[in-house]
C-alpha cells in the first residue's frame, strides 16, 4: 500500500478534513430526533465534545461550566492551576506579554514547581459543583499524580503526551508500564496520543477505557514543524477506528476513540465522527468562549518545554459564551458556534440516528469541497473563507 516517493521508498496517501465530504443518502431524519450523546469511562455525556486540557482553555470554573452543560473539560495537572494558588495571575502574564517574548514568558511561568496539595484542591473544587472531574498529565509523572487525583475524587484520568506507546525505552528513567498502571487503577484511564492501527490495538490491550487520536494537528501545536511527525486526522481516525472495531469483535470490549485537534468548524467535527470517532477534543473552539481563562488566547501544552518548545501562543479573540459555542444560537457565519446543533443537523441530513450510525455514512474524496462555488466568500472573506 502506498505510492513511490523515491527508489525503494513508498509513502501512504492520507487525508485531512478539507479533502473529504460527507454524502447524504436515501434517508433524512429530523435533527431533533437524533442522539448525539457519547459514553466515556462508563459516564454518559450529552455533548460528545471534550475541551482540551490547555491552560488558555480550561480552568476549574470552565470545567464546572462545561460539566453543567453536559460536556467534558479536561484539567491539566501540570498546568498553572496546580502551580499557583491564583492561576489567573499566571495566565494574565502570558496573555499580556509581547508576542516576541511569548516563549520566554511561558517558560518562566511554568518553571514554578507543581504543588501536590493544589492537585487535591482543584479536583475537589470541581467535584463540589457536582460535575465529573477529568484530569490529565504526562506519562512521566502519572505514577506520582494518580494516587493523589484518585483519592481526591477524580472520575477519569487521562495520560496524554505528544506520542504515546506501550513499548517505551529509556536509559534515564523507568518507563511507565501501561498494563500495570491500568490494572492498579480504580477509576477509568484514557491514553493518548496515537495515529496508528497497531499502536491503537496495543493501547486497547492495556485495558484502558479510551484512546486519543492526533499528533500535531492542534492550532497552537508546532510538533509537525519542529519534529516532522504526524498524520492527517481523517486517515488517522479511520485507522484507529478500524482497530477499535477489530478489538471489539475479538474481545467484546468497546474502547471509544477521541479525535483530538485539527477541527475548526462544525463541519470538521462531523467529518471526524464520520471517520469513526466516538467523541472529539477541541481547544481552539473553546478558547473563544467568554468563560475561557485565556481571554481569547491559547497555547500548546508542549510550549513550556525548557529546551524544545513545540507550540505557540495563538489569539482567536472572544466571540461568544460557552453555551452559544455548544448549543447556539450561532451569531457568526463561520461554523464555529452551535457545534452540537451542527452535528445534529448533519446527522439528520445523513440519516444517522446516533453516533454509531454517523460512523457508517458515505465519505467522498473531495479536494474541491472547500472552494467549489465559494469565489465570493473567498473574495469577501466571509463564511467559510474568513
Overview of this protein structure:
The structure is a single chain. This protein is an alpha/beta fold. It has one domain: TIM Barrel. The protein has 15 helices and 16 strands. Strands 6-7-8-9-10-11-12-13 form an 8-stranded parallel beta barrel, surrounded by 5 helices. It has a two-stranded antiparallel sheet with strand order 1-2. Helix 1 runs parallel beside helix 4, helix 4 packs across helix 5 and helix 7 (197-204) packs across helix 9.
**What is the highest CATH level, the class?**
Alpha Beta
- Please tally the helical runs, counting DSSP H or I stretches of 4 or more residues: 15
Major β-sheet profile: 8 strands, parallel, barrel
Secondary structure: helix percent: 25-40%
Index terms:
TIM Barrel, 386 residues, two-stranded antiparallel sheet, alpha/beta, eight-stranded parallel β-barrel, 15 helices
Quick gist of this model?
The protein is an alpha/beta fold. It contains 15 helices and 16 strands.
SSE blueprint and pairings:
Blueprint: E1 3-6, E2 9-11, E3 20-23, E4 38-40, E5 43-45, E6 49-51, H1 60-68, E7 72-76, H2 87-96, H3 102-109, H4 116-128, E8 134-137, H5 139-152, E9 156-160, H6 178-184, E10 189-194, H7 197-204, E11 210-213, H8 223-227, H9 233-251, E12 257-260, H10 266-274, E13 279-282, H11 284-287, E14 297-299, E15 313-315, H12 322-327, H13 339-350, H14 355-358, E16 362-365, H15 375-380
Parallel strand pairs: 6-7, 6-13, 7-8, 8-9, 9-10, 10-11, 11-12, 12-13
Antiparallel strand pairs: 1-2, 3-16, 4-5, 14-15
Helix pairs in contact: 1-4, 2-3, 4-5, 7-9, 10-13
Amino acid at each position: 500500500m502506498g505510492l513511490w516517493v523515491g527508489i525503494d521508498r513508498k509513502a501512504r496517501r492520507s487525508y485531512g478534513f478539507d479533502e473529504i465530504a460527507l454524502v447524504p443518502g436515501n434517508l433524512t431524519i429530523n435533527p431533533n430526533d437524533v442522539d448525539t450523546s457519547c459514553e466515556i469511562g462508563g459516564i454518559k455525556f450529552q455533548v460528545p465534545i471534550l475541551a482540551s486540557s490547555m491552560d488558555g482553555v480550561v480552568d476549574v470554573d470552565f470545567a464546572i461550566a462545561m460539566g453543567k452543560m453536559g460536556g467534558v473539560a479536561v484539567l491539566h495537572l501540570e498546568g498553572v492551576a496546580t502551580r499557583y494558588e491564583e492561576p489567573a495571575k499566571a495566565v494574565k502574564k502570558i496573555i499580556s506579554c509581547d508576542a516576541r517574548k511569548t516563549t520566554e514568558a511561558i517558560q518562566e511561568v511554568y518553571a514554578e514547581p507543581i504543588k501536590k496539595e493544589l492537585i487535591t484542591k482543584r479536583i475537589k473544587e470541581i467535584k463540589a459543583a457536582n460535575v465529573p472531574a477529568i484530569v490529565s498529565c504526562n506519562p512521566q509523572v502519572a505514577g506520582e499524580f494518580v494516587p493523589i487525583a484518585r483519592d481526591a475524587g477524580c472520575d477519569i484520568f487521562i495520560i496524554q503526551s505528544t506520542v504515546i506507546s506501550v513499548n517505551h525505552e529509556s536509559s534515564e528513567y523507568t518507563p511507565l508500564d501501561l498494563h500495570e498502571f491500568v490494572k492498579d487503577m480504580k477509576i477509568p484511564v484514557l491514553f493518548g496520543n496515537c495515529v496508528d492501527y497497531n499502536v491503537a490495538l496495543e493501547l486497547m490491550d492495556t485495558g484502558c477505557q479510551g484512546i486519543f487520536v492526533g499528533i500535531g494537528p492542534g492550532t497552537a501545536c508546532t510538533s509537525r514543524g519542529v519534529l516532522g511527525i504526524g498524520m492527517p486526522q481523517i486517515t488517522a481516525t479511520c485507522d484507529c477506528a478500524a482497530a477499535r472495531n477489530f478489538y471489539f469483535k475479538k474481545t467484546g470490549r468497546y474502547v471509544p476513540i477521541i479525535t483530538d485537534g485539527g477541527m475548526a468548524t462544525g463541519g470538521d467535527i462531523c467529518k471526524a465522527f464520520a471517520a469513526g470517532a466516538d467523541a472529539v477534543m477541541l481547544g481552539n473552539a473553546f478558547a473563544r468562549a467568554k468563560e475561557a481563562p485565556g481571554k481569547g488566547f491559547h497555547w500548546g501544552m508542549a510550549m513550556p518545554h525548557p529546551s524544545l518548545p513545540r507550540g505557540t501562543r495563538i489569539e482567536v479573540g472572544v466571540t461568544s459564551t460557552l453555551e452559544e459555542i455548544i448549543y447556539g444560537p450561532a451569531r457568526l457565519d463561520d461554523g464555529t458556534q452551535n457545534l452540537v446543533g451542527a452535528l445534529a443537523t448533519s446527522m439528520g441530513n445523513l440519516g444517522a440516528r446516533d453516533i454509531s450510525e454517523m460512523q457508517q455514512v458515505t465519505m467522498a474524496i473531495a479536494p474541491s469541497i472547500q472552494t467549489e462555488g465559494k469565489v465570493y466568500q473567498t473574495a469577501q472573506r466571509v463564511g467559510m473563507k474568513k
